[in-house]
Amino acid sequence: MRVFDFTSGESMKDLLYHDDAQTIIHLSLKEGQEIPEHRHRGADAIVTVIPVKGKVTFSTPGQTETLVPGRVIRLNAHDLHGMKAVQSSDLVVVKWNQTAEASSSQETNQS
User: Fold this and answer.
1) Cα angle, residue 38 at apex, residues 69 and 32 outer, rounded to 5°
2) 70-99 mean pLDDT
3) Distance (Å, rounded) from C-alpha 67 to C-alpha 50?
4) What is the pLDDT of residue 11?
5) Over 90: is that where the pLDDT of 108 sits?
6) Rounded distance between C-alpha atoms, residue 27 and residue 20, angstroms
7) What does the mean pLDDT of the chain come to?
8) Do residues 81 and 26 make contact, with C-beta atoms less than 8 angstroms apart?
9) Residues contacting residue 34 through CB under 8 Å, at least 6 positions apart
10) Which is higher by pLDDT, 101 or 74?
11) CA dihedral 90, 65, 82, 24 (to 10 degrees)
């Protein structure tokens, strides 16, 4: 077991963990701060956004959702997306590299 700590507001983006299969990031956004629309290129990955504190609007083309603690978004990393803090907010973002997961499963099955 590994435990990761983060402090609200210390920096906008803290890398908590990274390996070939996953990346875990803490985002701390001040009220009104925005992460412009973007997509993650490269590996086939799934992104899960978990709000810990505050309120953000999370947008993809054609859809906008309000995220608060207890409401989670999951999307393909290649999908265009962005967010804006309605209130000062902390979020945990988990990116799962599907290519690494598939390789790991194949290695396990071959053993």
Assistant:
1) 50
2) 94
3) 8
4) 74
5) no
6) 21
7) 88
8) no
9) 82, 83, 84, 85
10) 74
11) 40
The DSSP line for the chain is -------TTS-SEEEEEE-SSEEEEEEEE-TT-EEEEE---SS-EEEEEEEEES-EEEEETTEEEEE-TT--EEEETTS-EEEEESS-EEEEEEEEEHHHHHHHHHHHHH-
CA 36 centroid distance within chain: 14
Structure tokens at 21: 């299969």
Residue with tokens 């973007």: 38
Q: What is the mean pLDDT of residues 57-77?
A: 96
**What are the tens digits of pLDDT across the range 80-93?**
999 999 999 999 99
For 88, the token pair is: 């000062």
